[in-house]
Specification:
The longest helix has 16 residues, at about 125-140. It contains 13 helices and nine strands. The protein is α/β, with parallel strands linked by helices.
Length: about 290
């Protein structure tokens, strides 16, 4: 007899089972006791109308070989945290569309740290952006502050490497399954974070990256953080999706000022103009948080 968690993990692995589909199923059947006995008319209603998505979903749902998906995940050294588990962070329960499941590698205790700083920025940092990251991250780590970011190229991954080298606590959030790492060039970084910090995703292990995964990933980065630090980024970029989500979540925004003549400093400078706290040293963050 499968447990609720086993059924939820199987459901999460079914093609076409996005957040809204899981929401409707859990609303109708919170304990998932009817998961394998609903008539096809029920599923047609859930999916609005018969479609290829529905056919793929039912094929996966009714495939007896996939009923052991939970055991497969555990055998891959992946820990499964559902929204009902005690370790699941309260901060994520408060965001829009909290993940039903977090797939985790590493120290899950980091999820409930109170002063996590999100560090984000451009995928194409300038020499100045790299220098600022090298200057700030060791100071932040020495102050005992964990950082969270998304393993993207540029500022995100550079900040995480700096934090690891400084012996800090690092959380990495990816927009794919663990077996489909993106970008592939950061596989080594992901391995280091999973061994020395915590690597998480809301996507099943074999889920490849998709464009819409990355804005969704950013809501987790924002949700876990106490505040968000922007080092470099253009006004219209993925960095500012995280900022917007942070503002919606009530997070403070910190920004590093930059040259008036650098496109990559347009974003942080605009945030400062709108009221973001100027950050030049780690102590600026500590003062804002009331930490001495």
């Amino acid at each position: 007899m499968q447990t609720w968690k086993q059924r939820l993990v199987h459901l999460d692995h079914c093609r076409g089972a996005g957040w809204q589909v899981l929401y409707q199923i859990l609303k109708d059947d919170p304990e998932l006791k009817l998961l394998y006995s609903w008539p096809e008319t029920y599923w047609q209603r859930i999916f609005n109308h018969p479609s290829q998505n529905l056919a793929s979903f039912l094929n996966d749902l009714l495939n007896p070989f996939l009923h052991n998906t939970y055991e497969y995940v555990l055998q891959s050294n992946i820990k499964v945290l559902t929204i009902l588990d005690e370790e699941y962070p309260e901060s994520l329960k408060e965001i829009h569309q909290p993940p039903w499941i977090l797939y985790c590698k590493g120290d899950t205790r980091l999820l409930n740290e109170e002063t996590i700083l999100a560090v984000i920025g451009t995928r194409k940092p300038t020499t100045y952006g790299i220098q600022v990251t090298n200057h700030l991250i060791p100071e932040i780590i020495q102050a005992g502050i964990p950082i969270v970011s998304g393993l993207a190229k540029g500022i995100d991954s550079h900040a995480q490497w700096q934090a690891l080298h400084a012996g800090g606590k690092v959380i990495g959030v990816i927009g794919s399954g663990f077996h489909k790492m993106y970008p592939q060039e950061n596989q080594h970084l992901a391995d280091e974070i999973s061994q020395k910090g915590l690597l998480i995703t809301e996507y099943p292990p074999n889920m490849p990256p998709q464009k819409h995964h990355f804005p969704a990933r950013n809501r987790i980065i924002s949700g876990l953080s106490k505040s968000i630090l922007v080092i470099e980024g253009k006004k219209r970029s993925g960095t500012f999706i995280t900022v917007e989500q942070g503002l919606n979540h009530g997070k403070d925004i910190f920004a590093v000022p930059g040259s008036l003549f650098s496109p990559e400093s347009e974003g942080p400078n605009e945030l400062i103009r709108q009221g973001a706290r100027v950050i030049q040293h780690a102590k600026d963050i500590l003062e804002e948080w009331g930490i001495k």
